[in-house]
Amino acid sequence: MKHWKRLLLSLTLSASLLVTAVPAMAAPQDAAVKVDQALLDYDAHTPIVEQGTALVPLQATLEALDGTLTEAADDTITAVIDGQTITLKSKLVQVDGVTYAPIRIVGQAAGYDVHWDAATRTVFLLSKKAPDTVQSGGRGFLWEVESNGNTVYLVGSMHIADDSFYPLREEYEEAFAEADYLGVEIDVSKAADEANQKLITDLGTYQDGTTLKDHISGETYAKLGEILEQAGAEANSLDAFKPWVAETTISSLKWMQSGYEASAGVDLYFVQKAMERNIPVIELESYESQLSMFNDFSKELQEKNLKAVLDNYDVLDDSVDQMAEMWKTGSDEDLLEMTNSMAEDEEYYKAMLVDRNIGMADKIAGYLKNGQNEEYFIVVGAGHYLGDHGVVKLLEEKGYTVVRK
């Protein structure tokens, strides 16, 4: 597998980058919302797309969906929908004094399937099919481990997705329904927290008066500028940022254009369901540890990764589609091939997989040992599970039996 293709495997490996590390390069762009093909008519405040997420005026949208907004503060929404009071945790944005929220979160809470069409920049809210006509979004990756009265379900996530991933197989929903805890790499619903936003500024920007141009070759810098201008941004709009942030930004431009959203990712899907069920969300890692990992890559590796993405920008969307198909088919063989391809670069492989997998496996083993007769539903990037250094093998080496579901 070519070097540039394995970079896209980060879509299954690291949650925080896809949510927090993309700087705002240009003004949010307008979008439209249709409910069962009927266009929602907004007045002065229209839906926008910001950093890959479609945002809508919260109160106006709820009213159009026959709901009532009770309160929206501190990234918490309280509303009455179909006569029931619900509480949602979600990113809230103020635009000209109006509260905006992700349409996917609002639409799903109101009982719709949500689909983003990148070509027309339209969000479609579709009334859900009858149960006997619903098709599963795919097999995905699911394992079960039992020990000492405890059960741990291991789920391999794609951190970006679209509506074609859903509904998930019944096995996922049934296992989650019995879970006492949801475990994730990081709680991606906290991406907008001030402390996490400050992290990307502190770690991802130069603090010594230099700029990106001073740290990468003239050829790489020129290519970056060309692609930024193609995307409607200024050629120097990423000058304050380090190469690893620029790499993430360019990759994100492609998956956004292809209709994939972080707000539809498998991990965020279950974080939202955990909030609805009011069960604890536990983190196996932290925003700081994930961002620090990328920031600690050598200067050479950072430019190598950025250059690979720039040189193959025109085909990155195809690679994302391939990874989505891999997830839906649940092919262990294809996932293992992608995982093993990362070993081509020792520094990258050790940081992205080896070290992190050890920490994850140790925490999961701790959940299995506590003897509390509890169930844990663990959702981390799919690329962490297979291979000689994967979480599955690490748990087996600790004496546990891991069963593919």
In short:
This protein has 405 residues and is α+β, with helices and mostly antiparallel strands. The protein has 15 helices and 18 strands. The chain has helices at 3-7, 15-20, 58-64, 103-109, 170-177, 194-204, 218-230, 243-257, 266-277, 287-295, 299-311, 316-329, 332-341, 346-369, 391-397; strands spanning 29-30, 32-35, 38-39, 48-50, 53-57, 67-73, 76-81, 84-89, 93-95, 98-102, 112-117, 122-127, 141-147, 150-157, 181-184, 281-283, 375-381, 402-404.
Could you walk me through the main structural features you see in this protein, from its secondary elements to its overall organization?
The structure is a single chain. The protein is α+β, with helices and mostly antiparallel strands. The chain contains 15 helices and 18 strands. The strands form 4 sheets. Strands 16-15-17-14-13-18 form a 6-stranded mixed β-sheet, sandwiched between helices. Helix 7 packs across helix 11, helix 8 packs parallel to helix 11 and helix 14 packs across helix 15. About 1% of the residues have low confidence.
